[in-house]
Design a protein that fits this description.
It comes from Cylindrobasidium torrendii FP15055 ss-10. Keywords: Metal-binding, Nucleus, Repeat, Transcription, Transcription regulation, Zinc, Zinc-finger. One of its GO terms (cellular component) is PcG protein complex. Its main location: nucleus. GO terms for molecular function: DNA-binding transcription factor activity, RNA polymerase II-specific; RNA polymerase II cis-regulatory region sequence-specific DNA binding; zinc ion binding. It is a single chain. By secondary structure, this protein is an alpha+beta fold. It has one domain: Double Stranded RNA Binding Domain (2-Layer Sandwich). It has two helices and four strands. The strands form two sheets. The protein has a two-stranded antiparallel ribbon. A hairpin with a 6-residue loop joins strand 1 and strand 2. The protein is elongated, with a radius of gyration of 13 Å.
Length: 55
């Protein structure tokens, strides 16, 4: 089990913990690839959902 050092929430996978940690640190490592947009996201699936606004 992988535990968040900020809030103690537990995760079964280290990748899930890493995504969760972004909510505490404010890190947004995923950037919209559409030229001129530049929006950033802490969760990859949120960026993919956002990309639909450009279609």
């Amino acid at each position: 089990k992988y535990e968040c050092t900020y809030c103690g929430k537990g995760f079964s996978r280290p990748s899930s913990l890493k995504i969760h940690l972004n909510s505490h640190t404010g890190e947004k490592p995923f950037t919209c690839t559409i030229e001129g947009c530049g929006r950033t996201f802490s969760v990859l699936s949120n960026m993919r959902r956002h990309a639909r606004v450009h279609q």
